Structures are given as C-alpha cells and as structure tokens.
Amino acid sequence: MNNFRSVVGWILKLVASGLAYVAAGTVAAAVAAVAGLHAPAMPGAPSAGKAEAISLCMSLLLAAGLAPLAAGLSGAYTTRWLAITLLVFVNVGLNTVIETKIFMPTFAKVGGTFLLLMVAGGALAFGAVLARIFGRSATTSAVARPYFRPGQWAWRVAVAVLAFPVIYYTFGMMVAPFVLPAYRAGVAGLVVPKASVILPVQIGRSALYLLGSLPAIWLWARSRRGLILAFGWTGTVTTGLYGLLQAYWFPPVLRIAHSLEITADSFVYALVIAILFRPRVTFASRVEGGEKNVTASAA
C-alpha cells in the first residue's frame, strides 16, 4: 500500500511540475506574441487541440527527466530552483535553437527569440515547482564535495568541453548510415552542414551545455553512480526525447536513430562529467559554509 501511495505521489508531482511548465510557457508565449515576435514555423503544424495534447504529454516527460536529478540536489531552495531553471533553459531552449539553425535553416529564420522566451518562462515556473516538491529529501549537511584549485578547475572544464564533440561525432557516425539519406534528400528541410560549421558549433554548444549543467552537478548530494544515472537520463530527455518525440514531421528512422544516439551520448557524457567533477576523494580538507569540501584524490 505504501509503495502504491509513493508511486501515486510521484505521478502527481510530475503532473504538477509539467502543468507549471505548460502554463508559464503559454503566458510567456502570449507576451512574446504581443511584443510582435513570431513563433517558429515548422512543417505540417498540427491542429490546436493536437498541439496542446502533445505539449502536455511532453511536459510530463520533461518532469520525469528532471525529477531524479532534482531529488538528489542539496542546498537552499532558491539555489536548486535556479540550477534546474538554467539547465532546462540551456538544454531545451538554446540547444534547440542552435540545432535548428544549422540542421533546418529554412525553418529557423524566425522564431528563435520567441522560443527562448517561451522556454525561459516555462523553465522558471518548472524549476520552482520541481525544486520545491522533489528536493525535500536532499540533505544540506555533511555533503562531501571535492575541493579543486583554479588550475584543477581549468583543465577539468577544458576536458569536459572537448569531450562532448568527441562523443557527439563518435555516436553520430554510428547512426549516419541510417539518417544521412534523409538529410541529403532534404526531408523536412534538413541539410548536412559542412564540418567547418558543425565542429565550432558543437564546441560552443558543449560549453553552453556544461555551463547550464554545472550548478546542478555541483549541488548533487548523492553517489557518483547516482549522478551518472540521473544526469544521463536528464540529458537523454532534455536534448533528445523531448524534442524528437514532438518532431512528428521527421521519418520514424530519424526519430529512432537520433533517440538512440542521444541516449548513448548523454550517458557517456554523464560518466565523463562524474569522473571529472565527482572524483574519488580523500576526507582531508576543509569545511566551508556548513558543507564538507574534500580534496580530490586525483588532484
């Protein structure tokens, strides 16, 4: 009985978080429209009713994607709220705009600012609700965090930024035989950008991804294995499933192949992030702000 109540409780929390995202995003979109901004033009737009149903379903998926990460964060409520908000804004907002501009330039000529404002509004409300209802179990005391000197921060950030494009290309090449025909045929306005375009864009995107994720990574209060699973799942949803499941204009082969690709990307990247920013530690350092900071054994 207790397990049943726990499951129902989680579902209700997901619904509350998802509804907050949809409601606030709708208000932000209305404000953007009044300001004269145009929504993104996508091929084969669905009816209003279908669009609302898709939006609600995807908001629940987004909540499910962030809930495990949010439940493991420690710290003040406002800190956790802003960390979740930033991650969602970067992954769902900025990431989508960047990817659309290089892979679907025909449909990316307008709507970027509109989308960013809509996601920003949704992310603020979403983060506020998620941090409140999923963060209570996270402890704020005796959280062991590694202490890095400036030089150690620098090389870790550099490796993390460079690791993402390598992972991206590795798994991208694996699915290329399945997806390139659609890109070359221009299905749904897709194009194949030159390598000279993709590489710098992915490095920049990697830096944004790390910037958006690092606050949440640093607030993580549970095991390193838990971080890999939670952060990998968050990346899978926010940079993959959330957008691909809504891309009804894509052929099934594209949606399936890219979903598998991004899932692999996300979990491998999460492993790299955990190794870099949550190394095995020795408890021989200092205490700051009521939280334990420990010297990384790999330092």
* Straight-line N-to-C gap: 48 Å
What does the average pLDDT come to?
Answer: 87
**Strand-pairing-aware structural class:** mainly alpha
What is the CA-based Rg, rounded? 20 Å
Parts with pLDDT < 50 across at least 5 consecutive residues: 137-142, 282-291
The counted number of beta strands is: 3
Quaternary assembly? single chain
- Major sheet: order of its strands? 1-3-2
Instruction: Give the CA-based shape.
Output: globular
> What's the tally of helices?
8
Instruction: Give the total of domains.
Output: 1
Determine the fraction of residues in helical runs and give it as a percent range: over 70%
What is the makeup of the main sheet?
3 strands, mixed
Order of helices and strands: HHHHEHHHHEE
β-strand percent reads 5-15%
What does this structure look like?
There is one protein chain. By secondary structure, this protein is mostly helical. The chain has one domain (2-296). It contains eight helices and three strands. The chain has helices spanning 2-34, 48-71, 77-103, 112-134, 150-184, 195-219, 224-244, 252-277; strands at 145-147, 281-288, 291-296. Strands 1-3-2 form a three-stranded mixed β-sheet, with no helix packed on it. Strand 2 (281-288) and strand 3 form a beta hairpin. Helix 3 (77-103) crosses helix 7. The radius of gyration is 20 Å and the shape is globular. 37% of the residues are buried.
Descriptive labels:
299 residues; mainly alpha; 6% strand
Helix-strand blueprint:
Blueprint: H1 2-34, H2 48-71, H3 77-103, H4 112-134, E1 145-147, H5 150-184, H6 195-219, H7 224-244, H8 252-277, E2 281-288, E3 291-296
Parallel strand pairs: 1-3
Antiparallel strand pairs: 2-3
Helix pairs in contact: 1-2, 1-4, 2-4, 2-7, 3-4, 3-6, 3-7, 5-6, 5-8, 7-8
